[in-house]
Structures are given as structure tokens and as C-alpha cells.
């Protein structure tokens, strides 16, 4: 990707190093003191926690800055910045104002309004606090465990999570929540509603890529293929086959590899945010 000159988003909380056991993490009253000091002196709480913990500098092994991790952090902030500009424009065309989400960078474990989570859950969006959470080590997992390398593959993941925020703003998330309350969180109906939501987030990631390319010309040869490969790598059918040795469609929550590729590409080809509605209009069998 060509990101030279692209601005980093400032809607970022850097909590890296604050959740590592045995590291510079502070709990209870100590964490409260850190947050209070950060507020009083306009300091980043993650960096301040590291300094109080005795490690200094950015979070990392022995307080040392990891250039590769800092590059990944900058990359992620730039991608978030591009989503902000794209969705600002798209919501303006809808006659609405886009309320931007916050990106939280963390290491190992993090607390959110949706509860405690560790890095193994992968990147996620919490509607309770309207924040996107990511442990940057996931990028390495994409390459080594999912065989999904490439910068645009990483960008797709960030854009997908931001897509969940867009869904919240447009009211789709509330529709899925209603199904879960009525049918039960582990029912087939709830699973299918979740699939619709996830595929729609893929579609919206494609819409971002469409307009991002038009505005910033950031795509290079092979970039789109890397995103499609990432979408293919995290389909329910493929992941279930790898982990269980069999596929159970009624337990799908994100959609098949083919579906994820199809809807990301549909969003990229059309660039039409209104087209996201079809994910909740089409019969389930036609997704």
C-alpha cells in the first residue's frame, strides 16, 4: 500500500504493555493513579504506566522500542484515519454526521465495556464504548497461522471492525441484538443474524476500500488479492475444517470463505453504502 503522506488518526488509546502479567501493568489503585496523572498532565496513560513501572519508553521487552511494532502501530492509525475521511463523506451524503470510533492498541489482555478480552480473540469492536481493539501481534498471526500476509490484508481487518461501528450508527446492530434477545444467543436464528452482520461488515470494508482508492490512490498491484485472500482465510467453513475436521453450517457466525470474499468484493466494486441493506433483505440461502 502507498501510505506516504497519509495522516494518522488521533482517535487512539495506546494501552500496550498495560495488560501484561509480570510486566509494568498496574492494577487497582495504581491504575487509578496513572489515569488521574495522565488526565492532569495531558499524558498518554500507557506511556505513563510504563514509566511508573520502571521500564520507560514505549511498551515492549524491557522497555525497548520495537521498530516493527511501531511501524505496525503507525500503519493502523493511518488506516483508521482513512476510514474516518471516507465515512465522514459517506455519512454526509446520507444527510448524517459520522461519529468516529476510537482505536485501542493493547498487549495481551484488555478491559472494554464488553468485558475482558485477550489477544487470542483477535481484533474486535465493542459497541458499548464504540472502540476498536487490536493487539498488533495479530498481524503476525495473519501471516504465520492464517497464511494471509500483506498490508492490505491488515487494512481489511481494521476496516471490517470499523464496519461494525458503521453498522451501529446505521441501526443494523440493534436489529441483530433484537434477534438474539428473542431467539436466544446460541440459537440458529441468532447465528444467522450474526452471519448477516459479519458479511455486511465485509461489504462495508469493501465500500471503504472503493472510496479510499478513489481519494488516496493507496492500492498497489496485488493489494486487492491480499485482502480477498484474508477474507477467504477467515471463513467459518475453512476455520471449522481446520480446527474440528468437519463443517457445521448451523453454527456459523461469520459466513463461509466464499461469502466473505463475495461481499467484500461487492462493496469494493459498487462503493454504495446503501447496498449494505441487501445483507438483511436477501433470503439467508442467497447470501
- Major sheet, described briefly? 4 strands, mixed
What is the total domain count? Answer: 1
Trace the largest sheet across and list its strands.
1-2-6-5
N-C termini distance: 30 Å
Using the alpha-carbon principal axes, give the shape.
globular
Average residue pLDDT: 84
Any low-confidence stretches, pLDDT <50, length ≥5? 20-42, 47-62
The count of helical stretches stands at 10
Radius of gyration: 19 Å
Derived structural class: alpha/beta
Share in helix: 40-55%
DSSP, total strands: 6
| Series of H and E elements | EHHHEEEEEHHHHHHH
Strand percentage lies at 5-15%
Molecular structure report:
- The protein is built from 10 helices and 6 strands, in the order βαααβββββααααααα.
- The protein has helices at 28-41, 45-52, 67-93, 137-144, 151-170, 172-183, 188-216, 223-233, 236-244, 257-270, and strands at residues 12-15, 102-106, 109-112, 115-118, 124-126, 131-135.
- Helix 3 (67-93) crosses helix 7 (188-216), helix 5 crosses helix 7 (188-216) and helix 7 (188-216) packs parallel to helix 10 (257-270).
- It is globular.
- The strands form 2 sheets. It has a 4-stranded mixed β-sheet with strand order 1-2-6-5.
- Helices cover 53% and strands 9% of the residues.
- It is α/β, with parallel strands linked by helices and 287 residues long.
- The protein has one domain.
- Strand 3 and strand 4 (115-118) form a beta hairpin.
List the helices and strands and how they pair.
Blueprint: E1 12-15, H1 28-41, H2 45-52, H3 67-93, E2 102-106, E3 109-112, E4 115-118, E5 124-126, E6 131-135, H4 137-144, H5 151-170, H6 172-183, H7 188-216, H8 223-233, H9 236-244, H10 257-270
Parallel strand pairs: 1-2, 2-6
Antiparallel strand pairs: 3-4, 5-6
Amino acid at each position: 500500500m502507498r501510505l506516504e503522506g497519509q495522516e494518522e488518526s488521533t482517535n487512539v488509546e495506546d494501552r500496550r504493555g498495560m495488560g501484561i502479567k509480570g510486566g509494568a501493568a498496574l492494577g487497582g489503585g495504581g491504575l487509578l493513579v496513572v489515569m488521574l496523572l495522565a488526565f492532569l498532565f495531558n499524558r498518554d496513560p500507557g506511556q505513563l504506566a510504563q514509566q511508573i513501572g520502571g521500564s520507560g519508553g514505549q511498551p515492549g521487552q524491557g522497555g525497548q522500542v520495537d521498530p516493527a511494532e511501531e511501524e505496525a502501530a503507525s500503519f493502523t492509525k493511518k488506516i483508521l484515519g482513512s476510514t474516518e475521511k471516507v465515512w465522514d463523506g459517506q455519512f454526509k451524503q446520507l444527510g448524517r454526521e459520522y461519529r468516529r470510533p476510537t482505536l485501542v492498541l493493547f498487549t495481551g489482555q484488555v478491559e472494554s465495556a464488553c468485558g475482558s478480552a485477550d489477544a487470542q480473540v483477535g481484533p474486535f469492536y465493542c459497541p458499548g464504548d464504540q472502540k476498536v481493539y487490536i493487539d498488533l501481534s495479530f498481524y503476525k498471526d495473519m501471516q504465520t497461522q492464517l497464511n494471509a500476509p500483506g498490508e492490505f490484508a491488515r487494512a481489511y481487518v481494521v476496516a471490517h471492525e470499523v464496519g461494525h461501528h458503521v453498522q451501529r450508527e446505521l441501526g443494523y446492530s440493534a436489529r441483530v441484538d433484537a434477534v438474539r434477545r428473542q431467539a436466544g444467543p446460541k440459537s440458529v436464528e441468532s447465528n444467522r443474524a450474526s452471519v448477516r452482520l459479519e458479511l455486511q461488515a465485509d461489504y462495508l470494508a469493501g465500500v471503504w476500500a472503493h472510496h479510499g482508492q478513489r481519494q488516496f490512490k493507496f492500492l498497489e498491484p496485488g493489494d486487492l488479492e491480499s485482502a480477498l485472500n484474508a477474507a477467504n482465510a477467515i471463513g467459518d467453513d475453512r476455520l471449522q475444517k481446520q480446527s474440528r475436521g468437519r463443517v457445521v453450517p448451523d453454527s456459523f457466525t461469520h459466513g463461509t470463505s466464499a461469502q466473505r470474499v463475495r461481499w467484500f468484493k461487492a462493496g469494493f466494486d459498487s462503493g454504495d453504502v446503501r447496498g449494505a441493506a441487501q445483507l438483511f433483505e436477501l433470503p439467508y440461502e442467497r447470501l
